[in-house]
Amino acid sequence: MTARTPVPHRVATTLLALVAPLVLLGIAVAVAVSWADDLPDPVAVHWGTHGPDGFGSLAAAIVPMLVTGALLACGAWALAFYAGWSSSTRRIAAGSSLGMAFFLSALMLGSLNAQRGLADAANAPDVSTPLLVGVLGGIAVGAIAAWLTPADEDQPATVPVDASAPRIDLGSSERAVWRRSVFSRTTIVVGIGAVLVILVLTVVTRIWPLALLAVLIAALLGTMASFDATVDQRGLVARSTLGWPAVRVPLDEVVGARVTSVRPLKDFGGWGYRLGRGGRTGIVLRTGEALEVERTGGRVVVVTVDDAQTGAALLNTLADRARRA
Amino acid sequence: MLLRIDTSSAEPLFEQIGAQVRALVARGELTAGTRLPSARDLASSLDVNLHTVLRAYQDLRDDGVIELRRGRGAVVASTPDHGPLHEAIAAVAVVARQLNIPPATAVALLKEALR
Q: In this complex, is the C-beta atom of A226 within 8 Å of any C-beta atom belonging to chain B?
């Protein structure tokens, strides 16, 4: 890869992925500290199947949440600040950073609020309501942060398509489409496993909001289980069989497409719609053959799919044609 | 799968689409149960009229190559093993070459026989 363009929208990234989550956590800590006189000492900091089973000072209730939230925010911010060429990278970073900050704040404040005025923290009620508020609110706040993240501008290429990338023979009067579906057995197996574990946990702990988490995970994994990749006169579209999410690369932003090989854990840290090393955006459903598209603005999209050679060759050929038009 | 149409060809576009799907299925590149793009998607991909693709899909369905299911779109139907047919065609090609039969003649004879 040649010299990359600078990462765009760094101010927005810093505000959404770093400043906003830290401010949120700061406010939550300030509120928690202001409640110090109303709270029992020690406070309940951990809950088991039969109510609170771990106790500690107020600091022990605050510090782990604060440190976790701050570390997540710093990590997400660094990723988006240094590797956020693609809006999907910036959106995922801002969404997860602010969403997690909200989740942790809600859990901390909710569990402490329920203990205000108690003499003994052993009588603290369960944390299912704060958990529910935290999960739902966290998802909502994360979605808002992702929505507020600036989109990528149209960045038509100014250079020809990489001459060393593969091509197919396509006459000037010919039109072509390449289409391939990819299905992830891993996602299905891991997904069903995760949902079952959560459902068992729900029944054992009687923290019923956990069941909602199982439903959310099932829905999320459903969108990640199967993708259709299409290359045609509009460019590349890789879309979940359920319709969302989708990744699109218009022809005029194709710098070069080629075949690559993907190791999900090593290259992308897992399966699904992922951010990978070097700021690559990946639709990673299995190990092995993948279509890698370098697009303008230093962005790279990877889709694990069979017959990627044909897809790459057609995309380059159609991009050539679009460049000439 | 790769589908291509030639707009300068005399062969109607719906036949070009149909012929390629048939060939992909016969060669085993499209296996039974594979979903084809929806007619709408394929029409916009190839920048052709929706009815062109629908006509191709209907012909394919009539010949048992695909099944059209409400809600699921077009799915490649399960077909008998084409292996023996490929062997026979290869044998025909060998004999035609041995006897110096022009390809057009061989194809014409084959078409006659299949009528």
A: no
Cβ <8 Å between A177 and B37:
yes
Kindly tell me the burial class for residue B92, based on how many C-beta atoms sit within 10 Å of its own C-beta (0-12, 13-18, 19 or more).
Answer: middle
DSSP character at residue A15: I
Joined together, the tokens standing for residue A69 give 């939230």
Taking CA–CA distances from B29, the nearest residue in chain A reads A307
Residue of A nearest to B41 (CA): A230
CA-nearest of B52, B75, B2, B20 to A232 is: B2
Q: Does the predicted model carry a pTM greater than 0.90?
A: no
Beta bridge partners of A177: B3
Can you read off the two tokens belonging to residue A316? Answer: 């380059």
Degrees, nearest 5: CA angle A142-A147-A149: 95
Predicted ipTM?
A: 0.74
Of A122, A127, A132, nearest to A54 by C-alpha is A122
At A21 the pLDDT is 97
CB contact under 8 A, B4 and A170: yes
Q: Residue A254: what pLDDT?
A: 96
Q: In what order do the strands lie in the sheet with A174-183?
A: A246-250, A235-240, A226-232, A174-183, B2-6
What pLDDT, in 10s, does the model give residues A65-119? Answer: 999 999 999 999 999 999 898 898 899 999 999 999 999 999 999 999 999 999 8
Quote the pLDDT of residue A211: 83
What pLDDT, in 10s, does the model give residues B14-72?
999 999 999 998 888 888 888 899 999 999 999 999 999 999 999 999 999 999 887 76
CA angle A292, A142, A54 (to 5 degrees): 115
Amino acid at A130: P
Instruction: For residues A100 and A110, give the distance between their C-alpha atoms in angstroms, rounded to a whole number.
Output: 15
CB A84 within 8 A of CB A90: yes
Q: Return the pLDDT at A66.
A: 96
B60 CA to centre of own chain: 8
Looking at the predicted structure, is the pLDDT value of residue A56 above 50?
yes
> Would you call A296 helix, strand, or coil by DSSP?
coil
CB atoms within 10 A of CB A134: 24
CB contacts < 8 A, A to B, total 54
